[in-house]
Each structure stands twice: as structure tokens, then as C-alpha cells.
Design a protein that fits this description.
Distance between the termini of chain B: 15 Å
CATH topology of chain A: 2-methylcitrate dehydratase PrpD
Shape of chain B: globular
Number of strands of chain A: 1
Number of domains of chain B: 2
Number of strands of chain B: 11
CATH topology of the largest domain in chain B: 60s Ribosomal Protein L30, Chain: A
Strand content of chain B: 35-45%
Largest interface: A-B, 56 and 36 residues
Order of helices and strands of chain A: HHHHHEHHHHHHHH
Number of domains of chain A: 1
Structural class of chain A: mainly alpha
Distance between the termini of chain A: 48 Å
Number of helices of chain B: 7
Shape of chain A: globular
Helix content of chain A: 55-70%
CATH class of chain A: Mainly Alpha
Radius of gyration of chain A: 18 Å
CATH superfamily of the largest domain in chain B: D-3-phosphoglycerate dehydrogenase, domain 3
Oligomer: heterodimer
């Protein structure tokens, strides 16, 4: 078995009785021949890079390389610290860390793509917030990352995780699905609930255009990472309540690919359409060139 | 092999874009490895989307970071323009148009004290790259496998000797492509192996008659 179908991953989980993350670990070992300990070490390093990027992104008020974005993570985190947040603490922290990671990325900080650099804030945003709110260990987080990696791997194999091919649904949509599955996993949900959460998250980002201003990974990407973190938590919470996706995840992924294939090139990362082609977007592009 | 876990949980890299930053670092790094010494001058020409967005994506910092020997996860890439000056690397950045090229293409013309190299590469997404031209010869190298790049003259038996050295040291050749300027002219041979080739074997490859250079570049 390869990571090309969620249903086959679930079958294997049912047969072995192992959690989803452990099953992904076994599949990765089988496919690459790499020892489980080494895969776990690499996943642990990814987790540490994620935590470092989130905290560095809040602590330092860095502007992006272009100067288009910067400071929003600190702005929102202060809002949270002053107890002005409308969202619950879990969601507000997730927004803070997602904005921070994404802002750090725009400032050329070191990040772990998840699944891409442009969508790198969503998964760590959700998972770091959950760790802080509920006191999970790093080991728990690493296992949740493996679950997220299984979902992301299937999306990449069956469809695409490239904005140039599938629009932003392939990047922030995939990241939201990964984050939703990871959150259900760490909260103790069943493998089936993880998959339902991923399906709910991905369904609600279908059709999302990749239309970055001046072709840079900044507008609307940074703030979209913050908002998608909340979308992922909503999907996870619904799945934990027992809500199922009517369309199974494999079919949602196939639909995402089909939608991506029918998107015009101007909204697939070329910076020629959508928000990039608005008067404000074009003025920013002229200012930067 | 399908997509691995670490294609979606990684790469670990400086931002902001795996194609416009991480891939550009890797092209610079390959240039440095092929030259095998401190680079003194570099003329960098960006094409397509690289030309339009290099300032905002830090693609210039990325290429120069690679030329200075920084891996994609090195925080110093952000400061590479200042560090270049400190390390005595004089660089120029140019932009040009050529619609035949991949939209994320860079041409690097670099020199150490003793050697010069002209290398063209494209960043094809997610940090993956293709080197498409070396010293005016069309090549095709993706560095998804461990790769040895050899510079030699077009002469009977050179290729057999290269294959013999690798086989005698126990290496399996997964792929081999050669490009030449003309009969009896310069040749670049790109050899992919299943595992990295050790330094001693690389040294023996360099001693083969008509071979002027051999460099091992490990897969990304």
C-alpha cells in the first residue's frame, strides 16, 4: 500500500488496531526503508522548527522582505492577552501562532512547510494552541503530526499540493485538512473521526483561488493562514461531535483536483487575477517593482 | 516511489516560498559545489517570475546564500547580501526575458580565483530543481538521486573508464547522460548512483585521462 488512499489507510488501521499516526509511521517505513526511530526523530525536529517559528514570529516584529506585511501576529496576540478576543482561547491562540508562523515565513525565517511554505502556519497554529491549552506532550504532538502527514500525503499523491496547479485549495485547503485531522487525533478521536474532520475542512476550502498580490506569499496568504486555523478547529470539533462528511475524504480530494484542473491560470499563483488584479493589488505591485 | 511524509511535513527551509527561495538556494549551492572553492564574482540573471518577484521573495539572497554554501534551513540566508561583501564575493543582479525558459529560471556566471562556471537552473516547485545548462551545454540533472558530474574531453574510452571506476568500487549506475559541444570537444557527463560516491573514488575519477573534473552532489 502506498499513501494514495485514505480508505486503505483506515483499513490498515482497523486491521492492526494501531492509531492512525502509528499506521502512517509503518507505511512510511515500508515505503522508504527508513527506520521508525529515524522517522520519529525527523518528525520531532519538524515539530521543534514549528514551535520555534511560531514563537519567533510573535516575539519579533519583523516586516516581510517586501515590506507588504508584518506585525499582525503581535497585534492579535496582544488582543488575546488583553482578553478582548471574541474567539475562545484555543482558537485565538491558533490564530496567533498561524499568523506568527506565516509572518515569519514572509520575513525569510526558517519554517517547516506543511504542506507548503505559503500554508505553513495552519497546522502548527492549531497544534501548538492545543498543546498549550490542554497540556499535551511533545510525543503526543509528534503522533498528531504523523496523522496530519498521512492526510497530506494522500492529498499530494491523489491530487496536488501546488497552488500553481490547484489554486489555494491545494495549499491552505490541504493544510486545513491536515490540521483538522491532527487536532482530532490529539484530542483522542477515532481514526474515522480524524478523516471526517479532514474531509469537512477540505470541502469548505474547495474552489479557493491562489491570487497573491505582486506574486508574493503575503497578501492574502498570511491572514488566510490565521482564518484557516479556525476553520480547521471548527471541522475537528464537528467531527468529534460525531458529525460525518457526506462525501468521503478520497472523493473530496478527487473533487479538489477536478476543480483545480478547471481553474483558469490567472488564479493559480500567477499573480494575474483575483485580488492581485484589483486596483490596490496592482498599485502595490507597481510600488514594489 | 510515491510522495513521502516529509514532502508534506517539510522541507524545513527559510521562507517565503519553496520554489522562489528554497529552490534558488539549491541552484546556488550546486554552483558552489561544482566550482569547489570560494566564489569571488557572480553575475546572476533572473528570468520570468524570478525576474518579476526576486526582491519580494528574497530570491537574490537565496542564490547568493547558496553560493556562500548555506543550506536551505540556514537563517543566515536572510543576511546573505551583507555576508557576501564580508566574504569577498562581488555580485551583480540582472533580469532578462526568454519565453522559452521555465518561468523560475536563473543563470549564474561565477568564478573562483582559478575556475569559471556558467550554470542555468530552474526551480520547478516545492524546492525541486532542474539544472538545464552548464558551460553552454544542455544538461538534465534534478539531483533527486545522488549525482556525479564529470567534465571531460570527447575521446574514445573515457566513458568506459568512468563506468569501470564506479563499478570497480561497487557503485550501481542508475542513469547516465552526456552532452558534448562537438566531436572531440568538451563533454559533461551526469551520472546518477544509488548511494553517494566516496571521496577516494571521486579522486580516482579525476585521474582518468581526459577528465578535468568530477564532483559528487548528494541528493536533496
Amino acid at each position: 500500500m502506498d499513501l494514495d488512499s485514505i480508505e486503505s489507510l483506515l483499513d490498515e488501521t482497523a486491521k492492526s488496531g494501531l492509531p492512525l499516526g502509528q499506521t502512517v509511521l509503518r507505511v512510511e517505513q515500508r515505503e522508504t526503508g527508513e527506520a521508525q526511530a529515524s522517522i520519529l526523530n525527523k518528525t520531532e525536529r519538524t515539530w521543534q522548527v514549528m514551535k520555534n517559528a511560531a514563537s519567533a514570529g510573535i516575539a519579533t516584529d519583523m516586516r516581510s522582505v517586501s515590506g507588504l506585511t508584518g506585525g499582525d501576529a503581535a497585534r492579535y496576540y496582544n488582543h488575546l492577552r488583553n482578553h478582548k478576543n471574541l474567539l475562545g482561547n484555543l482558537e485565538a491562540k491558533a490564530v496567533s501562532y498561524a499568523l506568527a508562523t506565516s509572518g515569519y515565513n514572509a520575513a525569510m525565517g526558517v519554517i517547516a512547510a506543511a504542506p507548503t511554505a505559503g500554508s505553513a502556519g495552519i497546522l502548527p497554529g492549531v497544534l501548538i494552541a492545543a498543546q498549550e491549552e490542554f497540556g499535551f506532550s511533545d510525543r503526543d504532538a509528534v503522533e498528531a503530526l504523523l496523522t496530519a502527514g498521512g492526510v497530506g500525503g494522500v492529498i499530494a499523491n491523489r491530487a496536488t499540493i501546488s497552488g500553481a496547479e490547484g489554486g489555494c485549495q491545494a495549499e491552505c485547503g490541504a493544510a486545513s485538512a491536515m490540521a483538522a485531522a491532527a487536532l482530532v487525533d490529539i484530542m483522542g478521536g477515532t481514526p474515522r473521526q480524524c478523516v471526517n474532520a479532514a474531509a469537512l475542512a477540505l470541502k469548505n476550502t474547495l474552489g479557493l483561488a491562489c491570487d497573491p498580490v505582486a506574486g508574493l506569499v503575503e497578501v492574502p496568504c498570511v491572514k488566510r493562514n490565521g482564518i484557516c486555523a479556525v476553520l480547521a478547529i471548527t471541522a475537528a470539533d464537528m467531527a468529534l461531535a460525531g458529525i460525518e462528511s457526506f462525501i468521503p475524504l478520497d472523493e473530496v480530494i478527487d473533487a479538489m483536483l477536478q476543480i483545480g484542473n478547471s481553474m483558469p491560470a490567472c488564479i493559480r499563483e500567477t499573480g494575474d487575477g483575483g485580488l492581485a488584479a484589483t486596483p490596490t493589488g496592482l498599485a502595490a505591485k507597481r510600488r514594489l517593482s | 516511489m510515491g510522495i513521502s511524509l516529509f514532502d508534506v511535513l517539510g522541507p524545513i527551509t527559510v521562507g517565503p516560498s519553496s520554489s522562489h527561495t528554497a529552490g534558488a538556494v539549491r541552484i546556488g549551492l550546486i554552483c558552489r559545489k561544482l566550482l569547489g572553492g570560494e566564489i569571488k564574482t557572480a553575475k546572476i540573471t533572473f528570468y520570468g517570475s524570478f525576474a518579476e518577484t526576486y526582491r519580494g521573495h528574497g530570491t537574490d539572497k537565496a542564490v547568493i546564500g547558496g553560493l556562500l554554501g548555506f543550506e536551505t534551513d540556514n537563517e543566515k540566508i536572510r543576511e546573505s547580501l551583507a555576508l557576501a561583501e564580508f566574504r569577498g564575493l562581488h555580485y551583480e543582479i540582472h533580469t532578462a526575458e526568454d519565453p522559452r525558459l521555465h518561468p523560475n529560471t536563473v543563470l549564474i556566471e561565477a568564478a573562483t580565483k582559478s575556475d569559471r562556471l556558467r550554470l542555468m537552473g530552474a526551480s520547478v516547485g516545492g524546492g525541486a530543481i532542474r539544472v538545464t545548462e552548464i558551460n553552454g551545454m544542455e544538461v538534465e540533472a534534478a539531483f533527486e538521486e545522488d549525482t556525479v558530474i564529470l567534465f571531460h574531453k570527447d575521446a574514445p574510452g573515457v566513458l568506459a573508464n568512468i563506468a569501470h571506476e564506479l563499478t570497480a568500487s561497487g557503485y550501481n549506475i542508475g542513469n547516465l547522460r552526456l552532452s558534448r559541444t562537438r566531436r572531440e570537444g568538451d563533454v559533461i557527463t551526469v551520472v546518477e548512483t544509488d548511494v553517494p560516491v566516496d571521496d577516494e573514488t571521486i579522486r580516482r575519477l579525476r585521474q582518468i585521462e581526459s577528465v578535468s573534473g568530477a564532483t559528487m552532489i548528494e541528493r536533496f
